[in-house]
Specification:
Elements lengths: L1 E8 L4 H11 L8 E8 L8 H11 L4 E7 L2 H4 L5 E4 L8 E2 L2 E2 L3 H22 L5 E4 L4 H12 L5 E4 L2 H15 L6 E2 L2 E3 L7 E3 L4 E2 L2 E2 H5 L2 H13 L1 H9 L5 H15 L8 E6 L11 E8 L5 E3 L7 H20 L5
Helix pairs in contact: 1-10, 4-5, 6-8
Bound molecules: ligand NAX.
Length: about 325
């Protein structure tokens, strides 16, 4: 059997819990691949991972390899093929008596985590390792990690697939079609409320979704609001943030990267800008992506961008530049 080594940080958290079985079950890497899991947590809760390990064993997956628990990222990152960086410090947590509400403070605390993780992965992981950052602020965390990883053969991504799946769900309801009928969904920019889900370039049966819906008031108000504020709506309803759907989106991103992207489709994730669409180089930015048969990811170029879309892309670009400015001393 083939083997794949997968690192998951924040593995005892909500998303981690929902993610582990789906990584190990054969669904993500195939029935012919043993999945070795390196699970990482902060020292205070690393012992909880013993419970996750027992549950994984009790699932009886043929594809479960070795499961090891760590609180040291340097030890955990040796020889890994994939890193799913879920662990981060959420907004609103109290540290040393201070409630962390300001974006700049949050960015700096998480910046410290991703500096260390980036260095460890850059030095210890496989040379073609893929890294998916889920922990927020995901794009800027990925920027810090990739900068300190300083290893151009590794691919750093930040997750926007949950936003893309949310956008598809809204369109499927509106147009009364199946999710699988909706192709080419792009989330431009930051994984934050400034993200821009693009219905001009999304397609149903080779036709632009925005032209099929033909209702700019619905797209600009209801749709955009629903997608951008969906995370908050789930917190309000559930009393906790999205976990199952976030884990599902992480699995979708890994699978999309591993599979050659079909001709008439693409997938959404944020990667390092190469200047495409006039997005400044050196930002981790949500783009339409394709993966080739070697699992190499590239940006889909030359899509038409309307004036309205450009305005929205400019807003999310500005936010990412501000975030980059806030963590300038960490880069
Ligand atoms: P939880 O608070 O349930 O779990 C986070 C876990 O990370 C905790 O167990 C914590 O101990 C651990 N952790 C913190 N620092 C760590 C470190 N340095 N090394 C290893 N582990 C560490 O949060 P959960 O609901 O699982 O969410 C995790 C992250 O995903 C949050 O930052 C959240 O904002 C983000 N999200 C990102 C999404 C995306 O689309 N990119 C969507 C869902 C989610 O909101």
């Amino acid at each position: 059997m083939k083997e794949v080594n997968v690192l998951v940080t924040g593995a005892a958290g909500q998303i981690g819990y929902a993610l582990l079985t789906r990584l190990a079950s054969g669904e993500t890497f195939g029935e012919d691949t043993l999945v070795n899991l390196n699970l990482v947590e902060v020292p205070q809760v690393v012992s909880r991972l013993e419970g996750s390990k027992m549950e994984l064993e009790d699932c009886g997956f043929n594809t479960l390899g070795k499961v090891k628990n760590f609180s040291d990222i340097n030890e955990a990152s040796g020889d890994i093929d994939w890193a799913l960086l879920v662990g981060s410090i959420p907004r609103g947590i109290t540290i040393n008596g201070k409630k962390i509400e300001e974006r700049a403070d949050l960015l700096k605390i998480n910046g410290g985590i991703f500096t260390e993780q980036g260095k460890a992965i850059g030095e210890n992981a496989k040379k073609d390792a893929k890294i998916l950052v889920v922990g927020n602020p995901a794009n800027t965390n990925a920027l810090i990690g990739s900068t300190h990883g300083n290893n151009s053969s590794q691919t750093w991504m930040a997750m926007t697939a949950l936003d893309a799946n949310r956008a598809k769900a809204q369109v499927a309801k509106k147009c009364d079609v199946s999710i699988s009928d909706i192709k080419k969904m792009t989330i431009w920019g930051n994984h934050s409320p400034t993200m821009y889900p693009d219905l001009d370039n999304a397609e149903i049966n080779n036709k632009s979704v925005s032209s099929l819906i033909n209702n700019s008031a619905w797209i600009e108000n209801d749709f955009l609001q629903n997608v951008q504020q969906r995370g908050k709506a789930i917190i309000d309803a559930r009393g906790a943030s999205s976990a199952t759907s976030a884990a599902n989106a992480a699995i979708d991103t890994v699978k999309a990267t591993l599979t050659e992207t079909p001709e008439k489709d693409w997938f959404s994730a944020a990667i390092m800008s190469d200047g495409s669409y006039n997005v400044p180089e050196g930002l981790i930015f949500g783009f339409p992506l394709r993966s080739n048969s070697n699992g190499e990811v590239s940006i889909v170029k030359n899509l038409p961008i309307s004036d309205y879309a450009q305005e929205k892309i400019d807003i999310t670009t500005k936010e990412l530049l501000e975030e980059k400015n806030d963590i300038g001393d960490l880069l």
